[in-house]
Amino acid sequence: MDLSVSLLMAKKLDVGRLSSAEQHRLMNLAEHLYSLLQEKEGRISDLEDLVNELKGEQGKPKIAGKNRKEDKEVPKSSEEKNHSSEKERKSSKKKKPKSNKFSNRPDLELRIEVLDIAEHKKLPADAVFQSYRTSHYYDFCIEADLIEYRRKVYYSASTGKYYVSDLPTNCPVKGDYTYSLQEQVYRLKYKYGMPIGSILQLLEDGGVEITKGTLSNLLLSVGEVLSSERDAIHQAGISVGLYTSSDTTLDRFNGENHHAHIFCNQWFTTYYTRSKKDRQTVIDLLRCNKERLYLLNEQGIELCKILKSNKAAIKLLESHLFTTPKTAIEFKAYLEEHLFTLSDKAFQSCQKRIYEAAYLAAYYEEKQLGIFLSDNAPQYNLISIFTALCWIHVGRHFKKMNPTNAIYQKQLKDFLLQFWMYYDWLLNYKKSPTPELKQQLQDDFDVLFSIETDYDQLNDRINKTKALKDKLLVVLDNPDLPLHNNGAELAARRQVRYRDISFQTRSEKGRNAKNIALSIYQTCKKLGVDATQYILDKLTQKNQMIPLADLIFQKTNYAV
To answer: What is the pLDDT of residues 194-239, one digit of tens each?
Structure first.
């Protein structure tokens, strides 16, 4: 209910003669006002910190408690609380037995050294050797290896030519640093997240003479060699996967805020940075940056209505539909021809949504994307005909609620208990799906999200969730589909960690090098490929390892 209406009704209540329903109405009004107060206080605090930073001062520091637990004496606001559902979703699992960290490893050479006490200490005359007492230790060393190759040169008088052996494949024709060193630098930067200054110091301490500019150029050159890998991985992963999951997070590029777009499924993960995160940008990336095409057929007009475009514009376009996709230039001319009667202001305001609708309609005709799994962010709506939503994000809306009334706290707790119980049922269904269980879960969904409580905010959230039934239960027809978008969120953390350490990229080459590296390392991890050997294989041009894109097709038995 609207706040102004609730306040008006509260003024008319007879305080001395309140019914049970009226009492709950007042309590819900108090809860609403309290949540608004917390929101405003948080906003004011953020603005005060911003003002202090602009003055050159520091904002209020957030210092965790000694035991990193919530301070029970000072309750946290709903924005500061931990909204993770890990505890509720965590099932009882047996602990894995500890592995022997000194077990035989084929990739690690074992160096054996014999220590004989008799060599430095006099033993009794009757002391006889019986056996060895074995101890294992790991050692790690970083040091430079300066190599000089002396290639013999032969001259043939009969041919008038010189003959000299080629350099080893690990050595580039130009430059003073081996490919293995370049790969290690690349790994330190993008896999382990070290800033360039720290890598430079590490190399110098190890005995390598190199400048900061040369180090940056090495990183960019490796990125250029691997430049085609990411797009091939991206296209292969989208084409063969049952679903595509996506998320966005902040990225900094050349002093400006941009958006990092992450796409993934069980076979791949790719990263792209764009200045926008609107629906057309997402489709561009899903289409692997092909030329935009626009289609305004009956489906396109229906999408215009769904996106709430200008009604007058829709009416003018309904009689001029077309079924052959147009390029951006052709579509612009088409709109100018048929919407010339609109005022300049109306024409400019309606363009964005008409472009989106026509682009979506053309994309639907291509029928490339399967199920699209997301957190229900606005830019992902309508991206695919088959859309699945993340259950953990849905649960997070309930976890964010922070009622002060004990009755509402209990009602929220009881509902969350049933919510995560239903989540466990879905997990069990994924393991052993049956038609009977599918119908039961559909019925149970209606029962769960038809619950009514005395807490108005909880009722409102329950009703909103019930309206998403089709998107939340896509898993019933596709048991291999994840129930959450955690894959994309975890991948986004890699970008966040990079931003925390390096803050930003300054050039197009640097931005691409970062995104390509993150894509390769994350995809190699999913496919069980040694990323170090894979990158070395590409740098040395041996090409002995299967390209990651081809490996994705192989693992899914997909005919290329």
So the answer is: 999 999 999 999 999 999 999 999 999 999 999 999 999 999 999 8
Give the pLDDT confidence of 435-471 residue by residue, as tens digits: 999 999 999 999 999 999 999 999 999 999 999 999 9
Per the CB < 8 A criterion, the answer to whether 267 and 555 are in contact is yes
Look at residue 509 and give its three-state secondary structure: helix
Q: Given a cut of 60, is residue 93 above it in pLDDT?
A: no
Around 147, how many Cα atoms within 13 Å sit in the side-chain half-sphere? 11
Question: What average pLDDT does range 270-297 have in this prediction?
Answer: 94
Q: Residue type at 195?
A: P
What is the residue extent of each domain of the chain? 179-273+371-380+491-560, 288-367, 391-484
Kindly state the DSSP code that residue 546 receives in the 8-state scheme: P
SS3 of residue 326 by DSSP: strand
Q: Strand 371-374 and strand 243-253: pairing?
A: parallel
SS3 content of the chain, % helix, strand, coil (to 5): 50, 10, 40
Burial of 73-91, coded b for 16+ CB within 10 Å and e otherwise, reads eeeeebeeeeeebeebbee
**Weakest-pLDDT range from 44-48, 92-96, 221-225, 246-250:** 92-96
Rounded to 5°, angle at Cα 397 from 395 and 402: 115
Q: ∠389-277-473 over CA atoms, to 5°?
A: 5
Name the helix (H) or strand (E) containing 293: strand 293-294
Residues 6+ apart with CB under 8 A from 526: 266, 267, 268, 269
pLDDT attached to residue 443: 97
* CA atoms within a 13 Å half-sphere pointing along the CA-CB vector of 522: 30
Q: Taking a C-beta distance cutoff of 8 angstroms, is the pair 483, 431 a contact?
A: no
Give the separation between CA 8 and CA 5, rounded to whole angstroms. Answer: 5
**How far is it, in rounded angstroms, from Cα 256 to Cα 511?**
13
pLDDT at 328 over 50: yes
Helix (H) or strand (E) segment spanning residue 411? helix 406-431
pTM to 2 decimal places: 0.84
The token pair that represents 68 in the structure block: 């990193």
**Contact call for residues 362 and 293 (beta carbons, < 8 A):** yes
- Average pLDDT score over residue span 142-163: 92
